[in-house]
Amino acid sequence: MNRRIWMAAGAALVLSTALQAQTVSKPMRIIVSFAPGGPVDFTARTIAEPLGRALGRTVIIENKPGANGAIGAAEVLRSEADGSTVWITSVGAAAINPALYEKLPYNPQKDFAPVSLVTNNVEVFVVNAKDAAREIPDFIAAANGGKGGVAVASSGRGSIPHLALAQMELATNVDFLHVPYNGMAPALNDLLGGQVAGAFADVAAVMGQIKAGRVKALGVAAPKRHPGLPDVKTFEEQGIRGMDTNNWYGLFVSAKTPPAVVEVLSKAVQKALADPSASAKLLQAGAEPKSSSPQELAVLLKSDTEKWARLIKSRSITADQ
């Protein structure tokens, strides 16, 4: 029995070493399901260099935007399953799309193997800097006084900001007018221009505007305060329960990738995120660096898929409503 165990362990070690030797000279591609310049792209480019050092190989970024992440997902699945093509995605394409779309060309939990979490990106509610509200209850009271219908922006239908708004409506029993935009940039432009009263956004997407004093952060939709916004209270601290959002970014590979290779990649991500320069850069931008084991990311993916599916069903949210 002991001899079999040692033989199995030896075989796994040989496999891991052989696979590493086979692919070490082959550049790794990180497939980004979004256009260049966005927060996911920024995150990928921030970790690329330290990840390359940890693996001893070149890491390049390829942007494959479109179809709510499906184009990027398809690129990974059609590539060789040797760990050389990695998908970085937000929670949307991984855990929300299955409930939003009746037909999805991929199954996140069956077609992909989790590698590691990369960052946590919770939602913050912001208003124009000239708004009289100082905290969330002030904004809610003003909205309720006007019998609801106050315009609140998001980066798009079915996005995490949209789902955060749905959570707020459930938690406060106040109905808002959801105004979806094609991305956060135009939503913020209209917030600054007074066309909408407020907006949910990833902290990373509005950190610059908050620091510049152009928008005011009223509350963080997470169990704890954000390290980059230590003075901004959570919704729960302000008496509003049920607000728990996290537009996390994670790395995935094809499910056909050998487990030994997945483990090598996961440990390399941990080293990359421990790099002081990369970590500081992500924190300064408003993202919270956070690695995980493949197993931990698998648990998070499953729980978030179920959580967001319940909310989407209860609020009858669709991608085109």
Q: Quick summary of this structure?
A:
The chain is α/β, with parallel strands linked by helices.
Write the layout of secondary structure elements.
Layout (H helix, E strand, L loop, with lengths): L1 H22 L4 E5 L6 H17 L3 E5 L6 H9 L6 E6 H10 L7 H4 E9 L2 E6 L7 H10 L5 E4 L5 H13 L4 E4 L3 H10 L4 E5 H9 L3 E7 L27 E6 L4 H16 L1 H10 L2 E2 L4 H21 L7
Helix pairs in contact: 2-10, 4-12
The poorly predicted ranges are: 5-12
Let me know the CATH homologous superfamily of the largest domain: Bordetella uptake gene, domain 1
Mean pLDDT: 91
Strand content: 15-25%
Radius of gyration: 21 Å
Largest sheet: 6 strands, mixed
**Which CATH class of the largest domain applies here?**
Alpha Beta
Assigned CATH architecture of the largest domain: 3-Layer(aba) Sandwich
> Strand tally, please?
11
Roughly what percent helix? 40-55%
CATH topology of the largest domain: the name is: D-Maltodextrin-Binding Protein, domain 2
Question: What is the end-to-end distance?
Answer: 60 Å
What order do the strands of the largest sheet run in, or round the barrel if closed?
2-1-3-10-4-11
Order of helices and strands, N to C? HEHEHEHHEEHEHEHEHEEHHEH
Given the structure, what is the number of helices? 12
What structural class is derived from the secondary structure elements?
alpha/beta
Global outline: globular
